[in-house]
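Page 47, continued from p. 46.
Same chain as before, 306 aa.
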Amino acid sequence: MKLAQIEAFYTVIRAGSISRAARQMHLTQPALSLQIRDLEEYFCVQLLERTNKGVKPTPAGELVYYYGQKLMSMKATLCSEIEKLQSGAAKLIRLGASTVLGGYTLPCSIYSFKEKHPHAQINLSLANSRTVLDALVEGNLDIAIIEGPLPEGIAQSLDEFVSRSIGEDDLVLVGAPPLIPAGREAVTLSELRGLPLLVREKGSGVRATIEKALLEQGVQPDELNIMMEVNSLDAIKAMLGMGKGYSIISYIGVRKELHYGTLKALSVEGLSYRNIFTMLHKRSAFLTPLEKAFIDFMRSKDKGFC
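Result:
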């Protein structure tokens, strides 16, 4: 059995006739028919039924077609990866990251990595964690770095991905100093329910971390007084600076504001929320030497988060 015979049979079934498949494969009809006949002789079973409308697979032919689809997909992936190695694409890493990580920690890591690998080209795409993972699943990213708990669909199919924890951060409740009485350092869960909150959109890793922590304390997320959903941390910080409510934000995103006193942090009694940073790539994906080097770097102590 040869791969060319499987490809010929696969093309015939998709085309619906030997003549159309022959034209698509730039073969003569007798040459294509010979490949199908050789395949049938190999399996010692009829694979095609001729009808007045063309051809259709026998039960055995349906089985060959099913595995033929997998083989053709693998062939296309192999050709793509070989081309990637032979071209400048081997120097490119398509990296996706959640907005907080991409905006506040990864720039230093990428800078440090490029010092060690000056030929590397890194395309960094920022979105919320759910969108980044969708792009990874669809093959539009090589590596994803997200924050918060893994979405249910990804968590249930982790055998398809290689995931590694590469860090963590605290979430903090913050507001403008004029809103917070002098000496006040904490609020209760009951008080948190009444605060006007600015929150990230659904799909955000920070949002998922907050909801998970609340549920563990028996608090439903819809019990919160959510004033607005915002898909930009910078927009949330701008509104907080004008005294427009409170927000629960990753500490790394508000370090500067807390340091200069433009925002103030409060703890929530009985509530602890650790925001986990996770790096993922497809288990089935071929990794170039540069991608492997980047993954090893991000797992090391040299990654240098800002």
